[in-house]
Amino acid sequence: MAKHETPLLDELEKGPWPSFVTDIKRQAEKKPECWDILGQLELSFVEKITHWKHGGIVGVFGYGGGIVGRYSDLPKRFPGVEHFHTVRLNQPSSKYYSTKHLRDICDLWEKYGSGMTNMHGSTGDMVMLGCRTEALEPFFYELTHNLKQDLGGSGSNLRTPANCLGKSRCEWACYDTEEACYQMTMHYQDEIHRPAFPYKFKFKFSGCPNDCVAAIARSDIAVIGTWRDNIRIDQAAVKEYVAGNIPSNGGAHAGRDWGKFNIEKEVINLCPTNCMWMEGGELKIDDAECTRCMHCINVMPRALRPGADQGATICVGAKAPILDGAQFATLIVPFMKVSADNEFEELIEFIEKVWDWWMEVGKNRERCGETMQRMGLPTFIKVMGLDPLPQHIKEPRSNPYVFWQEEEVEGGFQRDVEEFRARHAA
Amino acid sequence: MALSKDELKAAILQKAETAPKPQLYIKDFYACDPDAKPREIKNVANDLVKEGKLMFWSSGSTTMYAMKNRIKDEEGASGVN
Fold first, then answer.
1. pTM of this prediction?
2. Residue B80: inside a domain
């Protein structure tokens, strides 16, 4: 494979930032097919059109996911990328690897593929870029038998579940995200490896409302750690923060002189529900009004901690902006105990109820959140067997929209309006 | 399920053979047995793939089913995955 002239791509090497063009050129010295990636991309820049085709029947035996077919539409001109399939590997929980394992993965990919990777995809997979069809089965065999790693999800499958660092490194984790992610991954192997749904479906597990894996923005079912009692306050540590003896935000803003820490300005006035105040030198919180924004806890981690009665909030229906724009997940269950003690029974029951409904009424290529939007939240809540809650409503004080069914109203809807208006003026 | 598993397999293959488009969504098979649950249909369709009678066709974001003799071996599509 010949080197191509790439004057437009070469411009992308001139800034002070790392350049993928430089990376690919370096890799091309070892794997000459990478010259054809640059050649084809240069042509796309000139013609302002992609020369990739994606999709097809490629895969490994028994699996219906984990590999995305890619082909050049100019295979004679760029033979190195005639086949350039993507392989997704299921990352370990929290993306903990040994350097040896990473080297082994890279060596394996250089043996069978282009050696190019993308770490990591939006579902957290390790993404291996560029492989010919005939190399897929031997790569998969060595991956699973020698490295004990499996493919991730793609297509209309359950996508590779992802989680934050959780209790392995974070004191705010309200449940064991790694255990939950691992157990759900093992429980739903069939759904990860074989298509089951009208479209893609994602789980993400965040240990606290900081939501480090962006579950609320990117997953069909977001399991986000929370607590239902009060934020734990160490008043002595609060005084130390106020006195400037403990740096706020764990010292994250210590690089510049922002002035003395001001608890009123930096914490209390920034509380979205105004549920905090100082009284007699102590910090007070009206916990019933707390929306778990985590700001005060992030700023003063040694003084404030999540409550002790911990579990997770379950939100459903987020998606990225491919069709109809991005959508955040909607809160469905404000609090659920998420625990390996009962083998995540309650969570599994919830997940399968959502699937049964979505598989039945979801249209082709419709994400679960889009089905919810089309059918309406009241319908979804009813299907899930839940009672409407104030937390289901975006603005409960100004915009209630939970409608009563006729059988829920005493006397039904057949009432004498004039008699009613005599007592309640319009 | 109103149909037996073998009857459902035959109905799915019939649908895959005769549908105007070679690639079918899983929901396209629901009509093969309106009394069957979506998961039962999915399991039977995936069994047919294991038996080599159907194939998965994936765009990367969506997976469809096809008879091998109705699609080209290496076929890509444009769009988002």
1. 0.90
2. no
